[in-house]
Amino acid sequence: MRYWLVLALALGVVGLSPTSTPAQAPADPATSSPQGDVDPLFLLRGRNIARAAAETANGGLGNYMAEPAMHGPTATAPVVINEDGSLLFTFKGFRPEDRSINGNPVFSFETEVLINPNRTFEVLYNGPIRPVTP
Q1: Would you say residue 23 lies in a domain?
Q2: What is the pTM of this model?
Q3: What is the pLDDT of residues 27-72, one digit of tens each?
Q4: 48 part of a folded domain
Q5: How far apart are CA 73 and CA 68, in angstroms?
Q6: Distance CA 106, CA 109 (A)
């Protein structure tokens, strides 16, 4: 029951956020569409769905927080806009108590969520931070 309440609250916030700027440019233009072809509201909702999915998969807000880019303007969200119009969010997260001596978060999770144009989603990866490949 608590799972559904958290998910409903997280998804309910989707329409309340004033952010409506477009996401950052795709990393690879050959496999992604131009940013202008994506509805800014879809980007906003997609980001919020991806964040809520990660929060749910990691035990809720008491156990997990997504990186700041997943809370601020959509222009800072780590997203790739795919050719088919889907959105791929890959972002880091941390436990609220895991902070450096300066109070900065110490990231230990990585989540990859695919948001389809029909607003269904799939968590493709949720686990330890993967090594960066060159």
Answers
A1: no
A2: 0.71
A3: 444 444 344 578 999 999 999 999 999 999 999 999 999 999 999 8
A4: yes
A5: 10
A6: 9
For residue 5, give Cα distances in angstroms to 16, 45, 96, 122.
17, 18, 20, 20
Please name the amino acid found at residue 12: G
Residue 29 covered by a domain: no
In the chain, the number of structural domains is 1
The pairing of strands 87-94 and 109-115 is antiparallel
Are the beta carbons of 45 and 20 closer than 8 angstroms?
Answer: no
Q: Which tens digits make up the pLDDT trace of 71-128?
A: 989 889 999 999 999 999 999 999 999 999 999 999 999 999 999 999 899 999 999 9
- CA 63 from centroid of its chain's CA atoms: 17
Q: What residues make up the domain containing 104?
A: 2-6+36-128
Look at residue 98 and tell me if it is in a domain: yes
Q: Name the CA dihedral angle for 53, 42, 12, 19, rounded to a multiple of 10 degrees.
A: 110
Please tell me the number of Cα atoms within 13 Å of 56 on its side-chain side: 20
